[in-house]
Amino acid sequence: MNTALVIEDVRLTPILVADPPLLNTQGVHQPYTPRLIVEVVTRGGATGVGETYGDGAYLEPARSLAEALPGRTVTDLNGLFASAEEACGASRPADGGGGDRTGRRVDDRVDAGGLRGVRNAEKIRLSVASAFEVACLDALGKTLGLPVHALLGGKVRDAVEYSAYLFYRWADHPVPGEHDDWGAALDPAGVVAQARRFADTHGFGSFKLKGGVFEPDREIAAIRALAEAFPDRPLRLDPNGAWSVPTSLYVADRLKGVLEYLEDPTSGTDGMAAVSAGTDVPLATNMCVTTLAEVPEAFARDAVQIVLSDHHYWGGLHRTRELAGICRTFGVGLSMHSNTHLGISLAAMTQVAATVPDLAYACDSHYPWQTEDVITERHTFTGGRLTVSDAPGLGVELDRDRLAALHRRWLEDDGTYRERDDAAAMRAADPSWTTPAVPRW
To answer: Are 368 and 378 in contact (CB under 8 A)?
Structure first.
């Protein structure tokens, strides 16, 4: 055994990061959102970093897993996932209804942290393990002097394309938070102005609008305004399952030839299969196909034509590559979903995206919306792309002063923001707001 690769210590730092008042079908982003930073320290002196969701459901199993890893090596990723399964056993929600098709208990809440369907034990386990896997790969790369992409088989591209992530939004939060200069975007003109700023600042050449906020005709108008302002640019619309099957087909018909793809217009494999059967507009998902158990039925029924992977909830970078192979086998397209992530996660996304030969669509990223980070040098998009780092590991380093400041914010919070809850944030502006039942339209 190479003792330099043995894990000496694991450090967990929950933080709260400023988030703008971005609207979605659940409500609005809170002023601050929880993230968890994982550090894996080896006996050889390398420190690898990872990042994932920071809500309480993830912290408890993360602590258990952190206690189990010292003495293991950063190369033992199979052992890591075995330990994660043990660590997350106690994290399965005790309330909620019924079980999923694998018999696991499920929580009856939509996971607002990613708007990716109901939360269950497997999703929690993989989301926790993903941060540890990335940290182990980062530490291994730093020890060997190799970039993470070399540990995943080598890069097939030198830069990864990203898409501008557009949101309906307010100018400010209804409660105290961090102010930015973006202003409100609540109509087609506001959405187009937002897109122009993204294009001018970062060079993005494709655009995705988070929908499900207003009635469908208003969102159709926004997409058509984008198409007029940016002719021949790829456009996407994602209402997070807010529409019925008939409404989804109505929107698809109105936007046929305009959209690159329509993402999760309705909920569940049954609904997506019904929409797919009634339109030629490609359907993408990060909601109805989020675990391997959901792949066979969705692919067999042609419910989706594009899967939006997210290494956080698929379980890391190796499993993202496994998913890419499955999609390639069945002729299903692949791209990447984004959550409210920081620079560590964006570095990990870029490293694994560089190794996937058939990544046919620009990846999503919230990163330009995030004004705070925990790395020493922020990522810079050029022409809508990120250059793939060839530095050892992920190619990022922690800014420990900033990490400490964001952790202090978490420590000083009274619990209001330690759980992401977009509906609760919306109630600050509208006390009568409840989480909308789907379909909304």
So the answer is: no
